[in-house]
Amino acid sequence: MAAKFAFFPPDPASYEVTVEKGAGKLKMTEVAENENVDVLKVKSKRGTEIVAVYVKNPSAKLTLLYSHGNAADLGQMYDLFIELSIHLRVNLMGYDYSGYGKSTGKPSEQNTYADIEAAYECLQETYGVKEEDVILYGQSVGSGPTLDLASRLSRLRGVVLHSPILSGLRVMYPVKRTYWFDIYKNIDKIPLVKCPVLVIHGTEDDVVDCSHGKQLWELCKEKYEPLWVKGGNHCNLELYPEYIKHLKKFVSAIEKSGHLRNGTVPSIDLMADSRPRQSTDQREKSRSSTDHRENPRVSTDLREKSRASIDKRERSRKNMELSEKTSNVTEQPEKARNSIDRLAST
Predict the structure, then answer these.
(1) Secondary structure of 120-177 in the HEC alphabet?
(2) Can you tell me whether residue 65 is helix, strand or coil?
(3) How many CA atoms are closer than 13 Å to the CA of 226, on its beta-carbon side?
(4) Catalytic-labelled residue, pool 85, 103, 108, 140
(5) Distance between CA atoms of 337 and 20, rounded to whole angstroms?
(6) Residue 140 designated active-site
(7) Nearest CA to 243 among 140, 160, 143, 141?
(8) Each residue's pLDDT tens digit, 35-91
(9) Which one is catalytic: 68, 87, 162, 234?
(10) pTM to 2 decimals?
(11) Per CATH, the architecture of 2-258 is what?
(12) Which InterPro entries does its entry note (predicted)?
C-alpha cells in the first residue's frame, strides 16, 4: 500500500543522454558541459540500467554518493551536485533510480536498493574508491536506499540524512509498529549503522515532519551534531546558509578523524556532542515521535503540499549561498531551483 504513493518521477525527464561523436563518451543534454563530470550507464543486479554522474574534484579525499529525493532527476540535481563537489571538496556520484530520468525499468523499493548498490560498486570498480572514503547522502525518500546500504557496510566514513523518513507508512499514518507491507523501514535499520550520522531537517517541514529526523537521530549509534533548520520546509533547506556551513563542518570533521580502517568509529572527541544546534533548534514545538502526530496524511494531501512547496520555490528563484563569509541568499538559476527535492508523497 505504501509503495503506491512512494514514487513520482518527473515526466518527462529533464534531460537526455547522447553519445559524443568520435570520443564515444556519454553526455547529458539540457545541462552545462563540465570537463570534471563523467556521465555513466550502470547495470544493476535486477537488470535495469541506471544513469549516473560522477563529479571529480582534484583536491578531494572523500567521495559522496548522493541518493536524491522523490520527484527529482539528475538533470534537476546537476547544478547542486557541482556546487556541493566544489564547496565540500569531495568527489560526488549521483544517480537516477530505475524509472527516473533516463534510467530503465520501473521504480520500486527493491530496485532502489539494487540501484544504489550498482552506483556504489561503480565507484569501487571504475574509480577505485574505498569503502572507508565514502559518505552516503540520502535526501527524503533517498534516505531509504542510503540506510539500507549503510546498514550493511561496516567501514563507511559517514552518512548524511536530509529530511529523512522513518518509513513510508509513517509519513502518512501515525503507526506505532512496523508492518510487513511498509517500505523503507529506516527506523529499524538506523541502529545498524556504525559510522557517524548527520541528520538535517527543517522544523516547518509539512511533507515529512521534523519528528522523523529527530527520532532517527535519537536511534543513531554514532550521533553527529544535527542541524534542525528553523523555519525550513521540505524543499528549501539548501537556501539556508547554515546548511552548507554545517555540511562543511561535518565533512571536515570526519576527514580529519581518519575513520579507522578496521571498521571502528573515530574518537567521540572528534564528533560534536549530542546536543542539537541551539542556533537552529530554539524551542520550536516539535513532536517527540511520529506516534504523536496530529492527523494521518493521505496521499492527496501530500501531493498538494509538495506542489505548494514547488510553487513557493518557483516564485522565489533563490539559490543557496555557499560561502561561510556571507549569509545572503543569491538568485538561483533555473536548474538549481528545480534541483531541490519536490517530494510528492514521501
Answers:
(1) HHHHHHHHCCCHHHEEEEEEHHHHHHHHHHHCCCCCCCEEEEECCCCCHHHHHCCCCC
(2) strand
(3) 29
(4) 140
(5) 28
(6) yes
(7) 160
(8) 999 999 999 999 999 999 999 999 999 999 999 999 999 999 999 999 999 999 999
(9) 234
(10) 0.79
(11) 3-Layer(aba) Sandwich (3.40)
(12) AB_hydrolase_fold, Hydrolase_4
| pLDDT band with cut points at 50, 70 and 90 for residue 145 | very high
Cis bond leading into 12, ω under 30°?
yes
Residues with Cβ < 8 Å from 165, sequence gap 6 or more?
Answer: 140, 141, 143, 144, 171, 184, 186, 208, 212, 346
Query: For this structure, is 68 an active site residue?
Result: no
CA–CA distance, 341 with 310 (Å, rounded to integer): 9
Q: How far apart (Å, rounded) are the C-alpha atoms in residues 62 and 89? A: 8
Cα Rg of the chain, angstroms: 19
| Residues 6 or more apart whose Cβ sits within 8 Å of residue 210 | 201, 202, 203, 204, 228, 284, 286, 287
Reported as a pLDDT band with limits 50, 70 and 90, residue 21 is confident
Q: Which of 79, 133, 205, 341 is catalytic?
A: 205
Concerning whether 38 is annotated as a catalytic residue, the answer is: no
For 78, half-sphere exposure in the C-beta direction (CA atoms, 13 angstrom radius) is: 25
